[in-house]
Amino acid sequence: MNTLSSFLSKFQLTTVIISLIVVHTSANSNKTSDDIKDLGSYVGCFRYVTSTNDLIFPSTLKSYCISRCRLANLNLIAVSKFNACQCVQTLGPAVSSALCNYICQADQSCLSTNYYFVYRIGPQKIHHAYYCTNDKMNTFDVQVPAQTSLETCAHICLELNYTFLQTLRKEVCSCIKTLEYGIFHRTKLTCNELVENSLEIKNCHYTEHENKTTIYTTRFSYDFQRGVSSYSHCKNKKYEIAEKCADGCSEGWMGDSCRNRDCRQNNGDCGSEMKCVEVVVNNQTYVECVCPYGTVRTRWDVCEVFKFNLVESDSCSLSSTFYDRARNISMEATYLSDHSIDGYTAAQINDNIAAWIAVTFQKLYAIGFVKVYGKLCQDEKDCSRLNNFLVKLSTLYEFDNDSDIRSLLELCGKGPDHAVQAGTPMTVVCKNFTLLSRSLIIQQSNEKFSLGNSAIAELEVFEVGCDTLNGRCKEDQKCTEEKMHDATVTKCTDLNDLRSAVAPFYGCFRWLLTQYHLNRYGLSYQECQDECRARKFDVAAVKAGINCSCGNQVTVGDEAPMDDCRKQHYLAYYIYHDCKVNQFCGATTKTNTSVNANTTATTAEPDVISKTESTDMNKKFKDNNNTKLIIIVVLSLAIILTTIGAVVLLRSRFLRDKRGVVIATILDRHRHNAAADKPAPLSTRIINDILKKSGRGVEKGSSINDSVASTASTYVSEPSGVNTGDTTTAAWRCWMWWKR
């Protein structure tokens, strides 16, 4: 019993401890993001990032994480799923902050599992320089203060949608759209010229080329999902940095310096593809331009469906390899997938017979489109080798290096008439979305084939989808995506559910034919209706919460779930007659965006709701948290009570087993006597003992043997041929019951 008591005490103590841990963990589970609030200034939410592989830490060790990232000269930190902290090298496409942040409590934010919270922890130390040159560039100049940093200039050029910038000269930030041909120099890059009284970099230079102009790219090293503009948007003076705009702000901007977006006007100057929204992040209001649901904002400032690049580092090959003796560099196939598009290094062939650049896949794919980045060119002739280059497909996995394979390949498409050099992608969309391929091959056009020596700096390959040219379907056809041999393929079908949308009418559709498209974007549903009514149209339609259309003769088709319109899916049109009588429309007229508190971290999606609704939601969520705490306490008490019940059961079983041992001892003694030819019958005292252990006594008017048999037969099925009056058999039955 001492052993049992000790066991029970430890078990009960463990149960209480577990219960307390459950309560404590639940009470603190909503504090996931407390440790990331002070990581730095918030940048945005991103679909993926490229980070240093060896610098991943729990964000709870924020000081350690920050110090390590700064030692690596990286100024961006990404907090991702499992609360891991990563040092960011380059940023992938951006999404709404609502996808990273969903409400845990009124004053806290939590992490989603599929996206990255990105924070800036200091000035940028590493700048993505391409080369230096003495050649003059065609630039777009912006006047800036004398103490402007290189990082600020890069952000200005990026916001203006320029891909390059050059060394800061006096008070001018110079942005470049495309690079000029010329002689390029590249040695060791040094960034030691600082802004006065600051740690920010003013300029960088290449060793032994300090007096030359350094060219940088804007697309990959700098954050582009910014809540505040890098320059002032004054009404009469554009592209400058001013403390105060005397004549006010351009439409869509506000504040003294006109650097904050105003979602109430001109869609916050977010253009025709994106919508200006307000999101609460870490209890702070953050304004951003957001692509419609189902798409991401790329580094090129366009909205696309996110797709993974099919090119892997070990899947690229060349028919031959060019060796650059001047730079002592072998132009290997691995450069096709090294995430560097500067064109200084590239994969280059050295023949004009087979003359192919290839990427092979682990399985069959239907290829939708390809992005090709060229190399740096010294002159037009150098770049012209890729004029009208051909993208081809094959089901083969390997190719001959010594023979012409052009007749074995299927054509996907061709590149531009004039190839673009480094830094800007050349996109080729395949003509046939139904071909399944194991390899993708790039060759020069038939006119350029004899030149050989073609080179590509980076290659990206993507699967087909309905988002690309409607999956190659006709305008009046419906595109659907299906699986064929694990590959995504598109299927085109005629629209059979076309109907007229005549007032009163409400619905969500993916196909629309209407009379008038408004040249204003990001309007609320009420504003769109008002614009339509002013033009004498009865029916309004809003696509993806951004584009407004009107008509009296409206045809719709391909009906979609209403949830697509609620989420403002990039393909969904919400068709309606009157906002005032429609609940959905009334609930989504505001441009302010928050997050549905009832969604989970893995599936949180933005719903467009008003600030009042957001406040009510936070209040409800607080009440929900209190309810959850009560439930947790009740569950903990239930665990304790269940444990006590289990302990009682264990104790009962333990005592029963102890009585069984007594009976076993009695029977063993009897069998021993039988084996020694001693008298077999059990004594009355022993039988009574057995009956007492079984909880049954000798009933009045019964013999001892009858009582034993009765007790035994109650618990053990009587085997055939057994004499119930045999006390030995009856005792054996009692033992079997105890044993069971």
Describe this protein with a few key phrases.
740 residues; signal; transmembrane; Jelly Rolls; membrane; WSC domain-containing protein; Kremen_rcpt
Beta-strand content bin = 25-35%
Silhouette: globular
Helix content percent band = 10-25%
What value does the average pLDDT take?
78
Compute the number of structural domains: 5
Distance between the termini: 21 Å
Q: Give the helix tally.
A: 11
The Rg value, from CA coordinates, equals 38 Å
Major sheet size, sense and barrel closure: 7 strands, antiparallel
Structural class of the secondary elements? alpha+beta
Model regions low in confidence, pLDDT < 50 over at least 5 residues: 1-39, 103-110, 587-625, 674-684, 696-728, 734-740
The overall strand count is 45
GO cellular component, one term: plasma membrane
Organism: Helobdella robusta (Californian leech)
Transmembrane segments: 629-650
GO molecular function: transmembrane signaling receptor activity
